[in-house]
């Protein structure tokens, strides 16, 4: 009985997922509009800038340089993140457009073009007894490169959609809102890096708080535009299934490829977890910059769902890897 309860607890949503659901519920009942929505939008922009500034200050250049020697592993992780996922997203189009709305498919395609997560990739790699230093380097590099690669991929494959903003305006916004604060954080790390490292819980709150602000403002506008009239329970379940299938394919292919290329078991764990993740922390702010606000709620929904699915599935997988190594 206790073993069954322990197995079920792995699939229990974490506190942040519950906060996301609560935020969506509040936005559904009490959506902001007018001047309040403008004020929330301005606060959100500042919070996102602070988020990327702190990420820049936290990222250790020494760790990146130390891990870059394992270039084959990093190249495979980046190929999974920025090549395999987008290809699968494009291949899913014929099926996805028959079972999902066009806006949800745009969200799914956008999800496929996001960088990997940092915290959960490293934590799951450690749990699965993988190569943690390589995970730190791969996940950090993916997040940094994603600031450039994700907008380029979106411009090439999604920007034709009606939900996208002007390409040049989107790139400029990415530079000003995300890249400039990130670089500023890196430049100031010499002076504030130790303080940031000592106050990591603060970074977590900024991380989660900025995401919740974007989710609230996005879903407020989406609710005003009739989101819950467009999104049925059947459509929501279908989206969950599509996200689960996408994750399963990437997990299987990354595991198969890492074994075929002769990586060690520790590296294999790192490749699987770093190559299969998509970052909610980067994805939601990027979506706010890249897409028109009227479509934002539907577009970030696949990212939110995939985030929870990947955490639950990979937590179980990490424990299986750990038992295999034990």
From TrEMBL:
Keywords: Membrane, Transmembrane, Transmembrane helix. The keyword Transmembrane helix applies. The keyword Transmembrane helix applies. One of its GO terms (cellular component) is plasma membrane. It comes from the Bacteria. The chain crosses the membrane at residues 37-54, 75-92, 104-124, 144-163, 169-188, 209-228, 234-256, 296-318. PANTHER family: SODIUM_BILE ACID COTRANSPORTER 7, SOLUTE CARRIER FAMILY 10 MEMBER 7. This is Sodium/bile acid cotransporter 7. It comes from Pseudoduganella lurida.
